[in-house]
Amino acid sequence: MASEEVKRANQYRLATMALTSLAAGVWDTLGDSAFAFSGQMGRQVLGIMEKEMGLEIAGEEPEDVLSEISRIFVDEFGFASDISVERKSPELLELKVHNCINRHYTDELAAVGVEKPFICPIMNATQAALRRMDIKASVDVRKWPEGNGSIITFKSR
């Protein structure tokens, strides 16, 4: 019989295989339209941040909200070593995710054909916050090898 440690590792493997298979199937079927499924994840993560971690959105500036969400991903989840938020122009916001713990998993998704990691929790939570602030923006995410992470951009429409 497997030890508890081996069982936990196998549970993680099964969960990862299930999520990878599901993400690949959705991407194969929908391509970029798979981003339509990202909203639910973003709203759930955002809800946890508000209820359990003190995140406040109402009355704040977009950069401040994205910075606070980024801080929570770094300090509370340990999801990255740093996430910088920068307004590149009046309609363009950029997040640089440094040393993302999901970097390896995103590479696995790419290896099975998922061109854009539409299941990125950072991207989804920040986009959900912008939507809650009535900011409509298209999103893009790309690999950032130099930072061992990704660059997420939001362009207002």
Describe this structure in words.
Helix content is 50%, strand content 20%. With 157 residues, it is α+β, with helices and mostly antiparallel strands. A 4-stranded antiparallel sheet has the order 1-2-4-3, with helices on one face. A hairpin with a 2-residue loop joins strand 1 and strand 2. Helix 2 (38-53) crosses helix 5 (121-132) and helix 3 runs antiparallel to helix 5. The longest helix has 27 residues, at 4-30. It is globular and about 55 Å long. The N and C termini lie far apart (56 Å). The model has no long low-confidence stretch (mean pLDDT 94).
How are the elements arranged and paired?
Blueprint: H1 4-30, H2 38-53, H3 62-75, E1 82-89, E2 92-98, H4 103-111, H5 121-132, E3 137-144, E4 149-156
Antiparallel strand pairs: 1-2, 2-4, 3-4
Task: For the largest sheet, list the strands in their spatial order.
Answer: 1-2-4-3
Portion in strands:
15-25%
Oligomer: single chain
SSE order, one letter for each helix or strand: HHHEEHHEE
| Class computed from helices, strands and strand pairing | alpha+beta
Q: Determine the fraction of residues in helical runs and give it as a percent range.
A: 40-55%
Tally the helices.
5
Basic shape: globular
What's the end-to-end separation, in Å? Answer: 56 Å
Mean pLDDT, to the nearest integer, reads: 94
C-alpha Rg (nearest Å): 16 Å
Query: What is the makeup of the main sheet?
Result: 4 strands, antiparallel
How many beta-strand segments? 4
What ranges have pLDDT less than 50 throughout 5 or more consecutive residues? none
